[in-house]
Write a structure and sequence with these properties.
Elements lengths: L3 H12 L3 H14 L4 H11 L4 H8 L3 H13 L32
Helix pairs in contact: 1-2, 4-5
Length: 107
């Protein structure tokens, strides 16, 4: 997934609009459905592969806020991918392949 600029460019190409018109249309539609530009940034970063913690750090918000925004977007019908903070089981390394050199003794 790209940036808001990429989405605006796609609107320009798809509907043969100039950039200013596409931006107005984009933000008007977001306002109409009650989605702020900050929430769109959160969604774009999430779809781009960042974790909730990475998004929170980048935007200067809490991880809880990030989670709440993604949940609200998902519940409102916005196309939000499944949780990416935990890798799907098929992508987890078998225990014998995990590099444990960075783990400190806790006892």
């Amino acid at each position: 997934m790209g940036t808001i600029k990429d989405l605006i460019s796609a609107l320009c190409r798809t509907y043969n609009l100039n950039t200013a018109t596409a931006e107005k249309l984009f933000y008007a539609k977001l306002a109409e459905i009650g989605i702020s530009s900050r929430n769109v940034r959160i969604w774009l970063l999430w779809e781009g592969g960042l974790t909730q913690q990475q998004i929170a750090k980048r935007l200067g918000i809490s991880q809880t806020t990030t989670s709440n925004v993604l949940t609200r977007l998902r519940n409102s019908g916005f196309p939000v991918s499944e949780h990416k903070d935990i890798p799907p089981l098929g992508k987890m390394l078998p225990l014998n392949e995990v590099d444990e050199s960075h783990i400190k003794e806790k006892f």
